[in-house]
Amino acid sequence: MEAYNCGKGREETITHPTRTVVRTRTTEQVKKHIHPTEIINVNRTVIRNEHFYPVYEREVNETVEKGSSDCERDMDREISFWF
Hints:
- The model has no long low-confidence stretch (mean pLDDT 83).
- The relative contact order is 0.11.
- A two-stranded antiparallel sheet has the order 1-2.
- Strand 1 and strand 2 form a beta hairpin.
- By secondary structure, the chain is mostly beta strands.
- It is 6% helix and 17% strand.
- The chain has a domain at 55-83.
- The chain starts with a strand and ends with a strand.
């Protein structure tokens, strides 16, 4: 495009590419993230069983009588115990 100025001669207009200015407006949002935790309290009772086997010991006095041949046959039946 040419334009004439009074007495100054010819004037030239040069158009440059459009300068782009990016203006960023930032807004902030809050997003809540919930991470639940469950705690389980366990009350444990342990039962330990103990087994006892008591042993008792005692003495027995035995008397065996020997005599005639009739007594010897019945010897097993004639044993006496004293407690």
